[in-house]
C-alpha cells in the first residue's frame, strides 16, 4: 500500500468530488440525533452483511478493516473491526469531535479469546438512530446467533473463576451514548496518521484520516487537522500513552458533554485542542471515598500512585469500585503498570494559597 503523507495536497478534481460528496452527506445525515432505532436486528451475523462467504469466513472486501490507536481493553480479547458506508456516501467530519455518519453505516467488532471467536458486536445507523446488536459464536464456529437484549453471561471462561459476558443493549448504550458521538473507535483522534508508538494494545492499521480523505469517504475535516494530524498534547511519551489509554477506555463516559459532565472528570481528548485530563485529575480532590477504597484525597497525587484514587479504581475489580464499571472482569495489568510509571515520573503541580487583597 502506498504511504500518503498528511501534507499531500488535494488536486482540483478531488476537491470538486469531495464537495459533491459533502452535499450527499448533509442530505442523508440531517437527523443525526442520538436515539434508539426501532427496527429489529438480523437474527444471524451472516444476515448483517459482514461476510461475502460465511462458510469460508471471508469478510466482504468492500468493508474497511481498521484499528484505533487507543483500543478499548476487554479482558485481553483479540479484536477485529470493520466499517461499511453506503455507496456514494461519506462521513461528515466538519465537527472533528462529533462525526456524522450517513444512514446505512454499519460497524462490526469481533472478540476472540485464545484464538476462539466468542462474540461480534454490530451497529447500524438507521433513519431513527443507531441500532445495536450482539452475536454469540457457537463453540464449533458454525453458528453466530443474536443474543437477547439482556446479553449473555458466562460466554467464555476467563481466569480466577471469572467469565466474559456479552453485554446487553442497555450496557452498550451506557457507553456509546455517553458523549456527542455514538461511534467511539472511529474518530479523528483514534485514526490520526500520527499514531502513538507507546499506545497499549494497539495494532497497525491501513486506514487513517489521510486514507479516508483521499478515498472520498471523509469530508469536511478542518484544514488545520488535515495539515497537522491530531496528537495528544503531553509532557512526555509515557504521559501521552497514559492519557491515550484513559481516552480510549474512560473518555466515552467521562467527558465534557455527556451525562457525567457534572463529575468534572474529563478524560476524552478533543481532536483540535488540548484536553483537560491533567487539570481534572492531577491534584484534583476526590469528592468521596467508595466502599473498599483506601485513603486517597486526590484523583492523582504525583508521585504517589498508591495514594491516587484513579489508580485504585482502575486496578480494582470490586464491583463497587472498579473502573470501567462495565465490560471487564479482569484488571488490565499493563495499563496499571503504565499509569503507575506515569504518576511516579510526574512532578507535583504546585498549589498556591489565594492572594490576600486589601480594601
Essential attributes:
six-stranded antiparallel beta sheet; single chain; alpha+beta; disordered N terminus; two-stranded antiparallel sheet
How many DSSP H or I helices?
Answer: 7
Q: Given the helix and strand composition, which structural class is it?
A: alpha+beta
Question: Helix amount, in percent?
Answer: 10-25%
Reading the helices and strands in chain order gives HEEEEEEEEEEEHHEHHHH
* Straight-line distance between termini: 70 Å
Q: Outline the biggest β-sheet.
A: 6 strands, antiparallel
Query: Beta fraction of the residues?
Result: 15-25%
The dominant shape is globular
Uncertain segments: 1-34
Number of beta strands? 12
Count of individual domains: 2
Mean pLDDT: 88
**Roughly how many Å is the radius of gyration?**
21 Å
Strand order in space, largest sheet: 3-4-6-7-8-9
Descriptive overview:
This protein has helices at 12-28, 169-176, 209-214, 223-227, 237-250, 309-315, 333-345; strands spanning 51-53, 58-59, 64-66, 78-84, 91-92, 106-113, 116-126, 129-137, 144-146, 152-157, 163-166, 218-219. The protein has two domains: 12-227, no CATH class; 237-345, no CATH class. 19% of the residues lie in helices and 17% in strands. Strands 3-4-6-7-8-9 form a six-stranded antiparallel beta sheet, covered by helices on one side. A two-stranded antiparallel ribbon has the order 1-2. It contains seven helices and twelve strands. The longest helix has 17 residues, at 12-28. It is of the alpha+beta class.
Amino acid at each position: 500500500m502506498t504511504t500518503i503523507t498528511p501534507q499531500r495536497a488535494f488536486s482540483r478534481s478531488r476537491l470538486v468530488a469531495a464537495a459533491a460528496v459533502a452535499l450527499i452527506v448533509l442530505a442523508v445525515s440531517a437527523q443525526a440525533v442520538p436515539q434508539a432505532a426501532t427496527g429489529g436486528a438480523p437474527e444471524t451475523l451472516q444476515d448483517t452483511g459482514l461476510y461475502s462467504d460465511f462458510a469460508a469466513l471471508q469478510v466482504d472486501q468492500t468493508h474497511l478493516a481498521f484499528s484505533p490507536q487507543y483500543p478499548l481493553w476487554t479482558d485481553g480479547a483479540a479484536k477485529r473491526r470493520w466499517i461499511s458506508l453506503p455507496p456514494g456516501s461519506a462521513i461528515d467530519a466538519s465537527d472533528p469531535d462529533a462525526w456524522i455518519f450517513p444512514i446505512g453505516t454499519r460497524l462490526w467488532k469481533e472478540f476472540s479469546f485464545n484464538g476462539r471467536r466468542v462474540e461480534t458486536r454490530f451497529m447500524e445507523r438507521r433513519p431513527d438512530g443507531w441500532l445495536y446488536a450482539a452475536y454469540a459464536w457457537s463453540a464449533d464456529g458454525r453458528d453466530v446467533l443474536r443474543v437477547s437484549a439482556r446479553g449473555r453471561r458466562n460466554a467464555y471462561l476467563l481466569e480466577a473463576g471469572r467469565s466474559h459476558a456479552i453485554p446487553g443493549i442497555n450496557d452498550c448504550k451506557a457507553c456509546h451514548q455517553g458523549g456527542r458521538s455514538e461511534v467511539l473507535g472511529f474518530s479523528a483522534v483514534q485514526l490520526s496518521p500520527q499514531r502513538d508508538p507507546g499506545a497499549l494494545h494497539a495494532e497497525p492499521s491501513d486506514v487513517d484520516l489521510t486514507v479516508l480523505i483521499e478515498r472520498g469517504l471523509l469530508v469536511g475535516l478542518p484544514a488545520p487537522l488535515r495539515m497537522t494530524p491530531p496528537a495528544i498534547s503531553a509532557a512526555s511519551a509515557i504521559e501521552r500513552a497514559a492519557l491515550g489509554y484513559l481516552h480510549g477506555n474512560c473518555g466515552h463516559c467521562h467527558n465534557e458533554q455527556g451525562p457525567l459532565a457534572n463529575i468534572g472528570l474529563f478524560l476524552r481528548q478533543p481532536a483540535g485542542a488540548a484536553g483537560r485530563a491533567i487539570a481534572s485529575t492531577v491534584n484534583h480532590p476526590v469528592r468521596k471515598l467508595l466502599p473498599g477504597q483506601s485513603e486517597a484525597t486526590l484523583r492523582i497525587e504525583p508521585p504517589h500512585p498508591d495514594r491516587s484514587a484513579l489508580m485504585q479504581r482502575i486496578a480494582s475489580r470490586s464491583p463497587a469500585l472498579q473502573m470501567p464499571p462495565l465490560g471487564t472482569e479482569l484488571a488490565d495489568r499493563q495499563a496499571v503498570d503504565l499509569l503507575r510509571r506515569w504518576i511516579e515520573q510526574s512532578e507535583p503541580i504546585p498549589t498556591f494559597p489565594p492572594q490576600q487583597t486589601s480594601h
